[in-house]
Write a structure and sequence with these properties.
This protein is α/β, with parallel strands linked by helices. The protein is built from 40 helices and 23 strands.
Length: 982
């Protein structure tokens, strides 16, 4: 039952080793340590090592960066797999060895429950050709390969473990799959290939709360969203373990469920008993599965040298050839035609290690670069890129908006200092207004647009050539929209996102800043070639010599940044984050931005008229309260009214201008003190902002070609890993106000479709319960209780069912405020109570949940010691001011250190869901499209006939994307408009 989707544990990280290099770290070191952790088999002893091949394939694929063999076939998973097998064979671990695979996706479990694993996405396209190669590798090493139609790999592992131990042998299962833990017993252990630690009965009981033999009972109750095992709603692992411990087994529990005192638990068990029994059949491994090979055929034997050498040479795996003692790897033709992407990566790593302080020392100068104006001149560049196995790519356009930009030129770089610019749509150079006074100038020579696109298309879509970009999403959208069919560029690496995965919050991730920081080089500025102000010209009018110097340098810098930054991902623990999340998000967001969301312009106009009328009425009220007319939108005039004429206390003048401060905090304080003018101005400002930003702004942003708004999701801005939305910003529309709901009504579905909103429920509080390991909060989430009512009952010592609205409101405020490091003064302001009372509530909160205070203190201490904190998924969130001498700045940094893992963790979870949902929809044959991400919410446009199926699939993927100590919950709604769906 190997999980294709994430199960909450970070996968191994690995770096492809150059020929002859000793593998370092991650999956490759894991393979080494895994082999060494298997008990040495004494002469004559029988010890079977069963490798969960299906599980290892996916882990190796996600751990290793893209690698291709000379013919362009992806081989990163194959490489990790061969490293593992070579270690087991050369180190003589085990008397018997077999690799077990899933034969197909359909097994006997689908016959008893058709929805079993129904929402699993297709494997990544780069992985598909590697399945057959890994089976070839197993055969080439002379290792037994086991698979059986109608059964999963886990069933075959169970059957062979039973048979081998019955004959007096010992078994080690190389896997960390929780579904295999039910097999652990005397004589059978597991080996976690990631942590290189054995898993025995104690480890299983620590994870599940029951001995291995009872694991299927616990899994049957808790269910498994990853495999679509239903379980019993509202029962998690902890509760399931308690029930099985108390009643002994599942069947006894179900027979006696009617006598359980807790009503919700009793109703769930009685009402879903059949689901529990079905779930146990799904999770129980079949130890009686038919053996495809006799046990004795699993005995370790040396591989046939010629067969193995030929296979390894074909793949270009020189280090494995050397390990297996199969000749001088450097001398064979297959090695000379090595995997160029791997070689380039290794060379970059070596260069970085050789000169860490000055990574650009001794490299080629920046320019001069070549201007390519004929197909004959372009062909050698294309050939050079193919030979290198990678090419840095950049586009030049006439707009910063990717969906409105026209492609003007393309830049390529194949090595440091080796770059070119291919102009495509340049016109006569110079300022068109000045040109009107002189003789017309002919456009420069360049390749006709259509011919250039067709010449570049095979290179830019070639999976064996890695494309390196800075802010890849922009260029990918421009190229997708290019005339003549567009180009879907793949595969890509993004230097902006590599930097973001390494150092979110530490600095910006724009190319110019990264170039100065890592290369010691300041690139040519845009203003240097286009001018400024009224004299600025569009890029298509820049003379080709200047355009080439500017544009080709961008590609050159991108390639050099990749050489410096990419090798850091593995040793700094950011490879999995980048490969699994950030890099995959590029294509997901590209498609979302290209799709856009439909906006009803007529409805926006009606909303605008209403807002204008209400603003005018408010202005009249404000003038009446002020005693005279004034410009309500002028902070200076408002300050004079409030503090000079009305003589209100608390005013502060700006040191720079001398004007009174009238920002929102000042007005809120006055409103609390009972000044009606301040409240009316706040109301007016809100309407004014909504009208200008969302009514007028959205109206201007509607694309006349499709009637839709196409926002731009910024991927590398927020220090916490969150996405942000610009042009227009669709993430700041008020959620709980009437005005915000009205604006959401203008976002509508196309005819025959509905909008579907899927929103994570209280995800940051769930992360708090997970990270701080608070038993009471975990229990409340597992039972599906009202978390704020439960908190109120706990901290105010109220009996269940007696929590009133005010107590719940206070608990809700502190539940969310605690994540942001809220002080007693902050809580007092929020609740309108004295600070002393607020301090008492906070003390009661921490007294009831001491693990939360401990977790917060650990986060602050970690930030002070390391300069960063981490999410549960490994992202480092840098806190620059944590050591500041200024107390205010330092306090702000401490609050950020507390909040970052929760906001960052929530961002990671929804991003992981986003990279899985589109594939899951395709696999299920559903045509819904993901349009928006607004913090914890995803918005889809779905054909009416597919709404129910899409809602179920989206919920299953989102809730099953990671495993926490508490269950994830997703609320789904649908409607003609976003307001109806939300």
């Amino acid at each position: 039952m190997t999980a294709i989707t994430e199960d909450g544990a970070a996968p191994p990280e690995a770096e492809p080793a150059p020929a002859g290099d000793r593998p370092r770290g991650g999956a490759l070191a894991g393979a080494t340590a895994a082999a060494e952790a298997v008990p040495v088999t004494l002469p004559g002893a029988r010890h079977l090592v069963l490798v969960d091949g299906s599980g290892y394939i996916f882990r190796a694929f996600h751990a290793l960066p893209p690698m291709t063999r000379p013919d362009g076939t992806p081989v990163n998973a194959v490489y990790g797999f061969t490293q593992m097998l070579s270690r087991f064979l050369t180190d003589h671990r085990g008397s018997h060895l077999a690799v077990v695979f899933d034969a197909s996706r359909t097994t006997f479990r689908n016959e008893i429950f058709p929805d079993y694993k129904a929402h699993r996405p297709d494997p990544p396209p780069e992985l598909v050709p590697q399945f057959a190669l890994i089976r070839e590798a197993t055969a080439a090493f002379g290792v037994a390969c086991i698979e059986q139609q109608g059964f999963e790999a886990d069933d075959m592992i169970a059957a062979y473990a039973r048979q081998f131990t019955a004959e007096g042998g010992e078994v080690t299962i190389v896997s960390s799959d929780k579904d295999l833990m039910q097999l652990v017993r005397p004589g059978v252990q597991m080996l976690d290939p990631i942590k290189q630690k054995p898993i025995r009965e104690a480890e299983v009981e620590e994870k599940f709360g029951v001995p291995p033999a009872k694991v299927p009972d616990v899994q049957a109750l808790a269910g498994d969203p990853t495999d679509n095992v239903p379980g019993v709603p509202g029962i998690g692992i902890k509760t399931a373990a308690q029930l099985i411990t108390e009643y002994g087994d599942l069947e006894t529990l179900l027979e006696k469920a009617g006598g359980i005192k807790q009503p919700k638990r009793r109703e769930a068990l009685v009402g879903h008993a059949d689901k529990a029994r079905l779930s146990k059949r799904l999770v129980t491994l079949d130890e009686a599965a038919p053996l495809t090979l006799p046990v004795e055929e699993l005995a370790v034997r040396p591989p046939e040298p010629r067969t193995l050498a030929q296979f390894l040479q074909t793949q270009g795996f020189r280090s494995v050839l050397a390990r297996m003692g199969l000749g001088e790897a450097a001398g064979d033709a297959g090695s000379r035609a090595r995997n160029s992407a791997v070689a380039a990566h290794a060379a970059a790593a070596a260069a970085t290690r050789a000169a860490p302080a000055e990574p650009d020392a001794g490299k080629a100068p920046f320019g001069p670069y070549e201007t390519v104006t004929t197909l004959a001149a372009l062909e050698p560049w294309i050939a050079e890129a193919r030979a290198a196995g990678l090419v840095a790519l950049d586009t030049e356009t006439d707009s910063l908006n990717a969906l409105r930009a026209r492609l003007v030129g393309i830049c390529l770089a194949t090595a440091p200092g080796r770059a070119c610019y291919i102009p495509l749509r340049h016109v006569a150079p110079g300022n068109p207004q000045a040109d009107m006074l002189s003789e017309p100038v002919a456009a420069p020579e360049q390749i006709p647009f259509d011919q250039a696109i067709e010449a570049l298309r095979p290179l830019l879509t070639d999976r064996s050539v890695l494309k390196l970009l800075q802010n890849a999403k922009y260029d990918l959208e421009v190229l997708c929209r290019a005339e003549n069919g567009g180009i879907a560029v793949t595969p890509v690496d993004d230097t902006m996102l590599i930097s973001y995965a390494l150092e979110a919050g530490r600095h910006g991730h724009g190319m110019d800043e990264l170039s100065v920081l890592h290369l010691g080089h300041k690139p040519m500025g845009f203003d240097e070639v286009t001018g400024t102000g009224r004299a600025r010209i569009s890029f298509d009018r820049v003379p080709l010599d200047k355009a080439t110097a500017y544009a080709a340098e961008d590609a050159d810098v991108t390639l050099r940044l990749w050489q410096v930054l990419r090798p850091r991902l593995l040793p700094e623990g950011a490879l999995a984050l980048y490969e699994q999340v950030e890099r995959r998000m590029v294509a997901v967001l590209r498609d979302m931005e290209l799709a856009g969301i439909k906006v009803d312009g007529a409805e926006l106009a009606r909303i605008g008229e209403d807002f204008s009328g209400r603003m005018a009425a408010l202005e009249q009220e404000i003038h009446g309260l002020a005693g005279r007319p004034f410009n309500v939108g002028s902070p200076k005039q408002l300050g004079e009214i409030l503090f000079d004429e009305m003589k209100l206390p608390g005013g502060k003048r700006s040191k720079a201008s001398g004007a009174w401060g009238t920002d929102a905090s000042v007005l809120e304080e006055l409103a609390v003190q009972g000044v009606p003018l301040a409240r009316k101005v706040l109301d007016w400002r809100q309407l004014s902002k909504l009208k200008s930003t969302y009514v007028d702004g959205l109206t201007a942003a509607i694309d006349p070609r499709d009637g839709r708004v196409h926002t731009d999701f910024a991927m590398a801005v927020a220090a916490t890993g969150r996405l942000s939305s610009t042009e227009p910003n669709l993430q700041n529309i008020p959620i709980r106000t009437e005005e915000g709901a009205r604006i959401r009504r203008a976002f509508v579905a196309e005819a025959g479709h509905l909008l579907l909103s899927a929103d994570y429920s209280q995800i940051e509080l769930r992360l708090l319960a997970h990270l701080a390991d608070v038993p009471a909060l975990r229990e409340a989430f597992e039972k599906g209780e009202d978390i704020h009512a439960r908190t109120a009952a706990d901290i105010f010592r109220l009996a269940p069912g007696t929590v009133d609205r005010e107590a719940r409101r206070r608990a809700k405020t502190i539940n969310f405020g605690i994540i942001y490091g809220m002080s007693a003064f902050g809580l007092a302001s929020r609740l309108g109570i004295p600070p002393v009372e607020a301090r008492g509530i906070i003390d009661a909160y921490f007294g009831q949940y001491p693990g939360i205070r401990d977790a917060m203190e650990r986060l602050k201490e970690k930030a002070r010691l390391q300069g960063y904190v981490s999410t549960s998924f490994g992202r480092k969130l840098w806190i620059p001011d944590i050591g500041a001498r200024d107390m205010v700045r330092r306090a702000g940094a401490e609050r950020a250190a507390i909040n970052a893992p929760f906001q960052g963790g929530a961002a990671e979870i929804i991003k992981r869901a986003m990279v899985r949902v589109p594939g899951a929809l395709r696999e299920a044959g559903l045509s819904g499209r993901m349009l928006l991400q607004v913090h914890d919410e995803l918005v889809f446009e779905v054909p009416e006939a597919e709404v129910e199926a899409t809602a179920a699939l989206v919920r299953a993927v989102m809730e099953g994307v990671v495993t926490l100590r508490v269950p994830l919950a997703v609320e789904v709604g649908t409607g003609r408009s976003w307001a109806e769906a939300h």
